[in-house]
Write a structure and sequence with these properties.
The chain is of the alpha/beta class. The chain has one domain: 3-Layer(aba) Sandwich (Rossmann fold), CATH 3.40.50. It is 36% helix and 21% strand. The protein has five helices and seven strands; from the N terminus they run E-H-E-H-H-E-E-E-H-E-H-E. The chain has a seven-stranded parallel beta sheet with strand order 4-3-2-5-6-1-7, sandwiched between helices. Helix 4 runs parallel beside helix 5. The longest helix has 17 residues. The chain is globular.
């Protein structure tokens, strides 16, 4: 079975789609929607707060997980009233799925890379919302995006 796949251009699109999917768990790839790859500690903390303020408003959301394959971490543990917030650094996406196994279903993964975030969504049985980053992304993520375009039709179907 193929996983639901949608596109988003910003946090407003993401929040609307998460609401339409009635997701109970929302997993965010940190870079680039929450904080840009080479951003500061302050931009990471501000991005987490911005995302939580939007997503925690949705009535079905119980868990918000921020997941990154990088080592960076927020300066304080993120929290939101009525929502369990998890931050996973060095997450090992898409290979490691154990940290996500006890999250309530249905769920959605939001990220920019089919080859990491999309495959994680597929392995978890979650929907995938691909965030379209602005132009000027670093070379590594740009190459990963090209590889992801090759496997996307094999893994995903649109929500329509």
């Amino acid at each position: 079975m193929r996983t639901v796949f949608e596109h988003a251009t910003g946090l407003g699109d993401v929040a609307r789609q998460v609401g339409e999917l009635s997701a109970r768990t929302v997993i965010f790839d940190v870079e680039p929607l929450v904080a840009y790859w080479d951003g500061t500690q302050e931009t990471l903390d501000d991005g987490i707060a911005r995302v939580l303020s939007e997503i925690a408003k949705l009535p079905t959301v119980e868990v918000v997980c921020f997941s990154t394959n990088s080592l960076r971490r927020p300066s304080v543990a993120p929290s939101a009233a009525g929502v369990r917030v998890v931050y996973l650094a060095s997450a090992g996406k898409p290979l490691r799925t154990t940290p996500y196994q006890r999250f309530p279903r249905p769920g959605v993964v939001i990220g920019d890379q089919v080859a990491t975030d999309g495959i994680l969504a597929r392995r978890l049985g979650y929907a995938f919302i691909q965030f379209d980053p602005p132009p000027g992304i670093p070379v590594g993520p740009r190459l990963m995006a090209a590889a992801g375009r090759l496997v996307q039709p094999l893994l995903f179907t649109t929500a329509d």
